[in-house]
Design a protein that fits this description.
277 residues; alpha+beta; N-terminal domain of MutM-like DNA repair proteins; Helicase, Ruva Protein, domain 3; 2 domains; five-stranded mixed beta sheet; four-stranded antiparallel beta sheet; 25% helix; elongated; damaged DNA binding; DNA_glyclase_Znf_dom_DNA_BS; zinc ion binding; metal-binding; DNA-binding
């Protein structure tokens, strides 16, 4: 958390502006404060502080769960929010940073953008070649060039159980606990099902379910389930995630929870029958 829909929402708000602040697109950095040096994965704080001022934002996008901010000198600012990261605008007049701000970006008109991260797991890179950071990511699930046939071929090569595989960013970029659980429910597939056992129709069903839940998440500006991410309401439309013990919206069977790879997984035992054996 945040996952693909939440990061996509933040990217759109940074491009276009939001109720919380102006657009970042087109702005020029005036200064930057590094309040928690370990937030910077690359370069070192002194280089970061020296290099960023004077750079103008030319484009903003997303890759998997990474925010991508392109600068006018060809460099790319990459931000991974991880468990508790967020970006928060603070209007002028300037005041003290928000609690838990790890980086603060300053602009000429007095606005400031803070990288806020209570748990300190988030990371930021300023690189010339983004592939040094993003090169191992799998396909984008919403990419029009990524087909159901491609997805099936990738499933056939793995004996990993579905839930664990969907969380592997090298297999598919952007999915996390929420949308993996929701997609498996929509597809009627148990999270412990080995990936290579899916038939072509089952793989196609899961492919479209992943796209459906991600597109729904984006339409609802993501899910707001704790203090970390604000502004979305997809949490009001969960079918299984965090609904353990509650009746399935489809059949009424109580939703169950089990732990797979140290991550909680939610499913309906009736709508998502367990794998044989």
């Amino acid at each position: 958390m945040p996952e693909l829909p939440e990061v996509e929402t933040i990217a759109r708000w940074l491009r276009e502006g939001s109720p919380e602040g102006p657009a970042l697109l087109g702005r020029t950095f005036q200064a930057v404060e590094v309040l928690w040096p370990r937030t910077l994965a690359a370069p070192d704080p002194a280089t970061f502080i020296a290099r960023l001022p004077g750079r103008r934002v030319t484009a903003i996008g997303r890759r998997g769960k990474f925010l991508r901010i392109w600068l006018d000198d060809g460099a790319v600012l990459l931000l991974h929010l991880r468990m508790s990261g967020d970006l928060r605008w603070q209007p002028p007049p300037a005041a003290a940073p928000h609690p838990h701000d790890r980086l603060v970006f300053h602009f000429a008109d007095g606005w400031r953008l803070g990288f806020n991260d209570p748990r300190k797991f988030g990371r930021v890179w300023l690189v010339n070649d983004e592939q040094t950071v993003l090169g191992d990511l799998g396909p984008e699930p919403l990419d029009p060039a990524f087909s159901a046939e491609d997805f099936y071929a990738r499933l056939r090569r793995s004996r990993t159980r579905l839930k664990a595989l969907l969380l592997d960013q090298r297999f598919l970029a952007g999915l996390g606990n929420i949308y993996a659980d929701e997609a498996l429910f929509q597809a009627g597939l148990h999270p412990l099902r080995p990936a290579h056992t899916l038939t072509p129709p089952e793989a196609e069903r899961l492919f479209h379910a992943i796209r459906q839940v991600l597109q729904a998440g984006i339409a609802h500006h993501g899910a707001s389930i704790d203090w970390v991410y604000r502004g979305g309401d997809f949490q009001n439309h969960f079918a299984v995630y965090r609904r353990a013990g509650q009746p399935c919206r489809r059949c009424g069977t109580p939703i169950q929870r089990l732990v797979i790879g140290q991550r909680g997984s939610h499913f309906c035992p009736h709508c998502q029958p367990p794998p044989e054996g």
